[in-house]
Amino acid sequence: MIIALLTGSMSHNVKESVIYVKETKEIWDQLKRRFSMTNGTRKYKLNKAVYDLRQKDKSVLEYYNKMKALWDEIDAMRNLPPITSMTPGVVAFVRALNLEREEERLFQFLSGLEDDYVAEKIHVLMFTPLPSVEDACARSSHEEAQRELQKEDKPTMETVAMLSRKEEWCSLCEMKGNSKEKC
């Protein structure tokens, strides 16, 4: 019964490779050896994905969420020993370590933003202390929203021409919105 559940969830190619194995544990062990990655390989792939990630056609929030998911997976793979005593030196060290990690993530986030955000990047990097990556994301997202509004509110040439005609003054009748040629 368990073998049927296992093989029922496999692709055809994988199923063919274990179809004649009679024990569930042996199937599991074969698949584990075949498909498991070492932590080093997985960490490398995750870190490479972070450094290669670019905003491209994604919104700032979509880009940030993708990057945050990668960071969270990297964090989940960290195998740090527990802290057993919280001396002032340990507290200071942990605080400095977290600040370094936060700065690294800020730089990774900024480096993947589109080139349109150069002014925003420069502005963020001028802060002392540097803002959190979440604050930088919020600023960039706000900038993105402002750009979208400007695109929507940008007057067309027709509108500009119509507005400029309304502002004309006729030198003959001195009426607003009239022109000498049409008077």
What is the fold's blueprint, element by element?
Blueprint: H1 2-8, H2 12-18, H3 24-35, H4 39-52, H5 60-77, H6 88-112, H7 118-125, H8 133-153, H9 157-166
Helix pairs in contact: 4-5, 6-8
Could you explain the architecture of this structure?
It is a single chain. The chain is built from nine helices and no strands. The protein is an all-alpha fold. The protein folds into two domains: 2-35, no CATH class; 39-78 and 88-153, no CATH class. The protein is elongated, with a radius of gyration of 30 Å. The mean pLDDT is 85.
What attributes characterize this protein structure?
183 residues; mainly alpha; 2 domains; 9 helices; elongated
Offer a concise description of the structure.
The model has no long low-confidence stretch (mean pLDDT about 85). The protein has nine helices and no strands.
Could you give the distance between the termini? 94 Å
- Unreliable stretches, pLDDT < 50, 5 or more residues? none
- Dominant shape: elongated
Number of strands: 0
Helix content: 55-70%
Largest beta sheet, briefly?
A: none
Radius of gyration: 30 Å
Number of contiguous helices:
9
Which whole number gives the mean pLDDT?
85
Number of domains: 2
Q: Give the topology string: H per helix, E per strand.
A: HHHHHHHHH
Strand content: under 5%
Helix/strand class? mainly alpha
